[in-house]
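As a warm-up, study this chain.
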Amino acid sequence: MRGLRIIILLNLCVLGFIESKAQDVNFMMNSNTILNVNPAIISSSDDFKVGVNYRNKDYVNDINAQSTFLMLSRPLYKDKKRFGGFGFSVSSNKTGDIQQFNNETFSGAYAHEVQLTSWSRLSLGIQAAYFMKKIDSRQFSTGSQWVEGVGYDPTAVNGEEFESHTTGNFTLSSGLFWYIPNDDRTVKFYLGFAMFNLNKPKYSFFGADQSESIKYVANTGYEIYRKNKFSIIPQVLYYNSYGEHNLKCRAKIG
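Now compare it with the structure written out below.
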């Protein structure tokens, strides 16, 4: 049975690599850490956690994308029993050949969990976040900088009516996380589901409001091997953002 479970999980991973489509802008799947996946997860561990992600990727035509993410979380106790947790995260995404497009995020989350059955627990998490988006046109190159008889002059005025513009909005998100703990209260098996941008916040750079779409995230994992403190947990993550389906598989070893 254990071998069959491994084969099924491997097949799911292969299928995910074949079928998954482009990731949503801002950005990369390495940013899918706890609060970006499901705020309810933060109550399922006895550990104080610090997570840091950084990625710098170059694309064609000198387009560059940078992603930085910092997350802190800790459990909450009452009478030496864990009943929940809270977390905080900060992220920064920058894109463009000169990083004209910036997206900064600040979020806080709280999760409360209960003993659902004698062998499983259920956590409910809520999260509030503030997004600040900025476009900077001061380094844009446009046709206005093409001077007849001279050619391209980067010092000429680019003709844009604005130098920079910033807009921000608040978002609300929520998630459920059901899991089966081991004897040492680590997670043996879990199923999670979360929805982000529940309030469909609107933002606008030039007067035409746009609404953020709801993002759906589902994830699962099962501990297939454990000896002392060493374990192997294959994990599957699915999310739907802007109508695109994305699937990621990995194995957590440690």
